[in-house]
Amino acid sequence: MFEQLHIFLSTTPFYDYRIVLILILVGAAVGFVNTIAGMATAISYGLFMMMGMPINVANGTTRVGVLLQFITTSAIFKKEGFLDMKIGWRVGIPVGIGAIFGALLAAVLEVKVIEIVMGVLLPLMSILLFVDKSKIQRWLNRHDKNSGKAISTEAKKLEAVQTASARNTAEVEQNRFSWGIFLVFTLIGVYGGFTHSGVGLLIMFGSFFLLGLDMTRSNAIKQFAVTIYTPLALAVFIIYGQVHWGIALIYAVGNIIGGIAGSYASIKGGDKFIKIFVAVIVLTMSAILLIRQFS
Question: For the whole prediction, is pTM greater than 0.70?
Fold first, then answer.
């Protein structure tokens, strides 16, 4: 069955109505999941590779839909009052700088190297889906109370931000941003330039742990940061001729539809099932990549 699907996808023109329908439906699912949590870009890579693309072209092609989707979702989070633009730029700039270097690595490395790296990194990234940040914070609080050791100034600030839901995000930005945090987001950008899959989670967790934002606002920062860095990474892939524009634009329609739905679902909350679903896809995709290289 898998082989038959591969033959159908790789031999049927992308403008065939059946392929168009598949691209839009899968693109919508990926856009929905990526907006709420992340990691679903692995599905895009899998689909494009089954259509006959090498991984580097699949990597570049998926960026078109990502850009259009996250422009749309950023506007929604801004409209709903969850996106602080000042913090967004502070995060987006270092992520964008790092993305240029990451995209250059992805564009010039051999396809086999990229597939092996992604096969190893994606399952590691999927672990982040199941990190319960509230339990970590409670453990830190308990540890401080039981041991009598003082928590660092930064940890105290984070605790205050987490417990004070009414705290202004501009206040968080002013008190918390540093060159160390700039470096962390730059490194996240390097990863994002290399492969988009999973970078949203890193941006969200960085915003949550380092800047003290709640998860909804961290998600909003993710949308905006991706909007900033994606054109820079996409430009590199365009220069190296690694974008299939026909498929990219059709797929982007689905990404935008899914992104709009995912934005409102994210604001309302609840994504446990999606995390499990994405983790299964990621592990499957990683296994395929690694087995193909080492078999």
Answer: yes
Tokens matching residue 238: 């365009």
Tokens at residue 145, please? 């109370």
> 226: closest CA among 254, 197, 250?
197
Number of domains in the chain: 1
Give me 165's structure tokens: 């839901």
pLDDT of residue 43: 85
Q: pLDDT band at 149, cuts 50/70/90? A: very low
- Show the tokens assigned to 129: 């889906």
The answer to the question of residue 8 being in a domain is: no
For the ranges 25-34, 81-90, 198-207, the lowest mean pLDDT is seen at: 198-207
Domain residue limits at 123? 18-294
Structure tokens given for 193 = 């330039």
Residue 1 lies in a domain: no
DSSP assignment of the chain, as one string?
Answer: -HHHHHHHHHHS-TTSHHHHHHHHHHHHHHHHHHHHT--THHHHHHHHHHTT--HHHHHHHHHHHHHHHHHHHHHHHHHTT---HHHHHHHHHHHHHHHHHHHHHHHHS-HHHHHHHHHHHHHHHHHGGG--HHHHHHHHHHHHHHH-PPPPHHHHHHHHHHH-TT--HHHHHHHH--HHHHHHHHHHHHHHHH--TTHHHHHHHHHHHHH---HHHHHHHHHHHHHHHHHHHHHHHHHTT---HHHHHHHHHHHHHHHHHHHHHHHH---HHHHHHHHHHHHHHHHHHHHHHH-
222 burial (CB, 10 Å; 0-12 / 13-18 / 19+) is buried
Would 100 be classed as within a structural domain? yes
In a domain, 3, yes or no: no
